[in-house]
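During the reporting period the student researcher (J.K.) took over the structure-prediction task from the postdoctoral fellow and processed the backlog of single-chain submissions. One of the processed entries is reproduced below for the supervisory committee.
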Amino acid sequence: QVQLVESGGGLVQAGGSLRLSCAASGRTFRNYAMAWFRQAPGKERAIVARINWSGDTTYADSVKGRFTISRDGAKNTVYLQMNSLKPGDTAVYYCNVDPPMNDYWGQGTQVTVSS
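J.K. obtained the following structure tokens:
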């Protein structure tokens, strides 16, 4: 059974940093594009950052220059380093393949940025 488990969220002040992890089990994802998504209260889930199998990355305009996505194929894990956090980054963060598969959504990890 495939599982994606997100961790590393928390409460942080504006300007702070967090590092999210997404540990995959049940299969290897090294040949898949992986992405981080987030869903803020009252809003739809949206992609934040994407990394393909060769390491090329893309970011939503709102996080460009502040967030960095990376992956460790040996650990089957994807990371999201988030710096200079803003209250607008408050959301539940999820990882998935891209394009996402419904069966792979996990519980997510809550990120709350206080002003």
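The committee noted the following: Strands lie at 3-7, 10-13, 18-25, 34-39, 46-51, 57-59, 67-72, 77-82, 91-97, 109-114.
J.K. will present the remaining backlog at the next meeting.
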